[in-house]
Amino acid sequence: MPLLFANPAGLWALFGIPLVLLIHFLQRQSQTLPSSTLFLLDAIDRESVQGSKIDRIRNSLPLWLQLLSVLILTWLLLEPRWQRESGVQRIVIVLDSSASMEAFRDDVINSLNSELPAIITSHGNVSLTAIESHEQGENLYRGDSVQKLTATLANWEPSDSAHSPEAGLQIGRSLAGTEGTLIFVTDHETELPYGASLLSLGSPIENVGFAGQRVEEREDETVWQVTVMNHGKTTQTRDWFLAAGQQRTSPRSLTLQPGEVRTLAGKFPDESGKVRLILEPDAFPRDDERFLLVPSKKPLLVAHSVEAGAEKFVTDIIDSLENAPLYGSTETDSDTPDLVFSTYNPLQPDDFATQAVVFLHQKSVPRDYFKGLIIASNHKLVRNLNWQGLIARRTPSIPAAPGDRVLLWQGERPLIILRLQLGRKQLLFNFDVAKSNATRLPAFVILIHRFADLLREEKIARFAENLDLGQALSLAYGTEEGSPPLTLTEGQTSTTLPLNRTQHLYAPREPAFFNIRQGEFVLFEGSANFADTREADFSTASTYSDLGAIPEKVIETRTVNDPWWPAWILLLLILSLLCWAALSNPKSKEAEFSTMAP
Residue 577: phi, psi to the nearest 5? Predict the structure, then answer.
């Protein structure tokens, strides 16, 4: 098994060898002992007569015992460890995929090129894995080469919003195992779970960028508004211009104080309905462009068939719906309306339309009111809506049907029902709305708008919207057998999306105009823009690394101690005792003789 030394500084103990030899080179001055009879003295070795001086070394037992003791002490101080033969050392690198990391991507590559080899050379076989910190982040690399890993990171494009790295670190720890090395690379100091080591490579940046947008209708024109913010700590000046198609305005200068926010506004050109605003680029270019288009919802063809008493409030509701023309008022290929508003007389029951909002209505005015607590179900259509002020009169009920979902109760009476049958959705108001105060409650109008938006989501039609980078996109498309795949076009690049892989669609991760079509039919046109201003603020970015402690941890987890270290310590003690005994019991000592006169 390969041998490693956990404490190479223990080699300094070898300087004890020349020290021991030097001591044995030094001789003591001989002493004069008066004696009356010289023949009674044993022969003694010749000793120095001039005091301590360097003389020839004398071969003796204490010398060899002391040298052996120095060697054993050096071995113990080196802390020898043997590497295990089984297993592979795993290193998992979790990269912070927040958009702010784009400014430090080159620093990440350079730092990993310099830091990883020092970690890898401290043990044998290695497995390198690089993943992003977001829950839906990508697996960037898996292999055993630092060069290939950093080459992969050259194309890495972090673009997520600010998020906790805990989910990514949890995945990283499961990949590394309990004995593996987990490294989190980010641009600021933070506390990390799962025993992860931190590599922070950030630094403060003076950044100016777009911070928000709005598109609204004003009289007969559509107006855009964007905000520009100075995230830095010093006054900054930037040039900006507007581009529409192949045309662009001349640059204009914009000076912002630290933390200042400025609003820019203008009109959309009539011919394209798209504009692009561009700031002079800086170290963080992601927020230096803003792509805007005129948003439009899917058209919802609406019809109504209501009694005279309900016609007024139904007409008001239809007028409040956006892009909801009356059926037959526009040219369309559809032979049926998308939504029908109708009334239901419990004394003269009739079938409901395919997609409908149905109001219970009877000509006579009921006298009694519903009593009991008003309770809403946990459904997205009525979530966070307040119905406690509703006052409704007691009427006969709409007959229940299989699959009904009650959205609102009062006592034992279902007041609002969502009916799903054969792919049809119907919102049933099981009380006389015209004889109640429902039309004065915000919850009533909001519920109908939510139901209309639910029908829009399921309709296959073109719509346009300004989105954030990576924002989830809900899209309705043809799923019949033989339907063509979807095509995502971003600039000059087109990507084909098979229908079995389009359950989750997201906006691009880079600012751009894009569209999605099925065959030749355009389903969606949109823009993707950077929107997380937290990632544009680099005031807390810093540099820190605790990777220096990793080699020591690797040695501890991937090697075993010298199993004979107790025997070495015992042997060292025995040698010390033998050396002491040899020095304290010489062959002869000073002899003293005395003579007496006869």
Answer: -65, -45
596 CA to centre of own chain: 103
Specify the range with the lowest mean pLDDT, choosing from 28-42, 111-125, 292-306, 557-571.
28-42
Phi/psi at 268 (nearest 5 deg)? -75, 140
| Run of H or E including 571 | helix 565-584
* Longest Cα separation, the chain: 163
Contact between 538 and 202 under an 8 Å Cβ cutoff? The reply is yes
Per DSSP, 378 falls in state S
Alpha helices of 370-481 — where are they, by DSSP H? 442-458
- Reply yes or no on whether the pLDDT at 12 is more than 90: no
Alpha helices, H only, 26-60? none
- Please give the DSSP secondary-structure letter assigned to residue 325: P
Q: Is the pLDDT of residue 353 over 70?
A: no
Q: Are 469 and 451 a contacting pair, CB within 8 Å?
A: no
In the chain, the amino acid numbered 139 is N
Q: Pick the closest to residue 104 from 190, 203, 196 (CA basis).
A: 203
- Rounded to two decimals, the pTM is 0.73
Phi, psi (deg, nearest 5) at residue 521: -90, 125
C-alpha 226: how far from its chain's center?
28
Q: What are the chain's domains?
A: 3-79+562-584 (no CATH), 89-203+541-559 (3.40.50.410), 302-458 (3.40.50.880), 463-529 (2.60.40)
Q: Is 131 exposed, middle or buried (0-12, 13-18, 19+ CB in 10 A)?
A: buried
Alpha-helical regions (H) of 142-189: 146-153, 166-176
Tell me, what amino acid is at 150?
T
Q: E-strand spans in 121-162?
A: 126-132, 139-143
Query: How many Cβ atoms from other residues are within 10 Å of residue 278's Cβ?
Result: 18
